[in-house]
Amino acid sequence: MNKFILKHIGDAVNNGISSGKWEILLIRKMVMSLPDSGNLAAFRPLCSENDDLDFFKNVFNIQAHRRAKAINNFAKEIKDSSLPEGVVRKLLVSIFFNMLLDGQERKDENVRDACEEALASLSAHMSWTSYYALLNRCFREMKQHTDKSKRLLNLVCLILDKFHFAKGGEAHEEIRGCLEKTLYPKITKLFDSESDGVNFNAYVAAVKVLKLLPKEIMDSNIDSLGARKALAACLKELGLENYLQLVVKKLVSLLTKGSEVHCLPSPTGWKLDHCLEDLLDVVEADILGDVDEQKEDKKDSIRRRKKKKETIKHKSLDSLRLIAENVTFRSHALTLLSPHIAIGLEGNPSVDQGDLFCFIYHRVDDNKSGLRGQKSSQPSKKKRKSRRIQDTSGAKSCPYLITVFALDLLHNRLNRIQPNNTNEELVSKLDPFVKLLVVCLSSVYEEDVVSSSTKCFTALLRLQLPSFKSEAREVKTKVLAIAQSAVSSSSTLVQSCLKLLTALVSNDNFKLSSEELKMLIQFRMFSDLESDSSVASLSLLKAIVRKKLKVPKIYDIVDQVSRLMITHQNESIRNKCGDILKNLSYEHSTGREAVLDVLQKLIHKFPDPSPGKQSKPSLGHQSVVGQQSQNLFIELALHLERENDQKLLAKICDVMKLLIGCMTNYKSSLKLSLGWYKQENSRVRGAKVLGLFIEAEKKFPEKKCSILLKEAKTILESAVKLQNTVDEGSIPLWKEAYYSLVMIEKMLKQFPHLCFHEDSQEDFKDVWTMVF
């Protein structure tokens, strides 16, 4: 087993001859049939009677989310139990690596993330030799796949997190030597990478390796971190409130070069009222100043930047958030006009809600006259030398920036308010914002002011504010105009408008007429949902469907929504499509016909390889239709019984016969249909469906015919007996008798020799006697 079958399987995948689709199914068969051979019993937990949970059947599924789910389940399964060393484990490592490196970046990210976790989980149970070989393979793959370096380096970090080798002994000395002399130098070479992502991950990986080495080696390589900790310790000892300003001024005077200024924001934060202006000057110099443009010797500049962690990424925006959390709001709010600080103010305990609403209202109200004019140009870097509002030309020439900041602040606060915790005082403070936000909706600064206004409106709609009724018409008109002009749903403005429209459709204060709902359905984005789908647009569609709008256009989009529900990679999109279809009542026959057309196309597109039989797994996954065949079968059977439209009845029969011919659970569905036929309240449904089984499948089990004939005979006998016991004009059991005879007719067309069988001759004779 190990020397021949498993060896050749492993060689085929490791050498790139095969992707592993067929091999993984063969291994599953061996695990189920020969668990005692080749340590295969350890892989039994990865198999499942539920096909959706079976790792082997889903790891190569055509749907990315199913592949990701299977690999994630694999990682969880082996978290606490190891897999034995051998060909199968090496095969899985190769498969996960192939998936990790396959395809374009930013596509199937969930699958690649799952592969990283799976490889890291495998490494947690490896011997040092296998563990070290896995790390070296990551670096080899980096040379061959330079565009995947960032992801591979992230995998290295995850594997290092699973380091599980005890200290002490000769083996530890060997491990230490490999880490210090081989692995660490390989990582440090990546410090010079031109990619910021690789550069950053390289530093993280280096620190992880250093943590595994003796303390003296780690200390000698982390000097900058030590210096920062020493400075922080001195400030803590002296007292931040008394000496922080002095330290900041001293650092500003010493660190003047571009690459050094980036280091300044790291120690900031805490109770900062007394040195707020100095700190903001430091932060602004890093973000907006011209220190980056200062001339340094070219080689020296490059060397400095690559050596210093602090120059890799701006820390100033994080520093702004910390500053906002640690100053007195009432006296310093105007100084903190920056969108990056709005979140920080939410964490500031000195903020009074009343003061905050007053501050926001006046900031927006003071600048509303400037929102309708021409867009002013951004202030130049040279003019923005100070963050003091009274001295900043940018604040005077760009009032809309202040408005956007205030609206962001309002939005953050509104999201924290629970609708069931509102009171009259809160309502009185928020109600004036309704008219103010209506003015903002007309601003020329669409992507900034209008987008922020719609977000605030959406949050306000959760509350019952008096001004909603008086302003409802104008709000609807303006938001509809913005959304109607949108070509795509991808922009921030359109997304926020769609969310607001969804809230408006569901809000009783903003009743949209049927004409307005029809206008929403005509939006361009609904014409091509498959290429322009978003949760926001589908949420709006769901809200419209709930209003029971009866227009043909609703059913025109059923095709698109049904396809998205099955084929889209984003789970939230698939779930939203499912919600929409559940809310469709399909009162028009055109809608029901559209659904049947979609099902017919899907069955043709995803046929099962072994129609009419209990299918075997193919290509590592079940048929897409096969996974849902039982649910589809039951729903179609119920509609077959209820449908009155003759054209649609024929359509349902065609779809059901097509489904029966390719379903993976043929036997269980046939058994279910026989059960229906034997039950008094579902005989009509059973007779109709069994007739379709006979028509659809030439290999319909002939032995079932005698059972069906006896049941049909019983039904006909009951119908004959009841004929003389009821009033004239009322015919009992006529449907059951009629569809039983239709089923018998189909049976004789398929099996004409049944009339001459000894087992069924008497039954047929009795049936014809009752009929004629």
From TrEMBL:
Region (Disordered) location: 370-392
What are the transmembrane regions? Answer: none
All copies of the U3 small nucleolar RNA-associated protein domain together span 227-339
Question: What is the protein name stated in its UniProt record?
Answer: U3 small nucleolar RNA-associated protein 20 domain-containing protein
InterPro entries the record matches:
ARM-like, ARM-type_fold, SSU_processome_comp_20, UTP20_dom
Q: Which Pfam families match?
A: UTP20 (PF20416)
Upper classification of the source organism reads:
Eukaryota, Viridiplantae, Streptophyta, Embryophyta, Tracheophyta
Provenance organism: Brassica carinata
GO cellular component assignments = 90S preribosome; small-subunit processome
Classification via Gene3D superfamilies: Leucine-rich Repeat Variant (1.25.10.10)
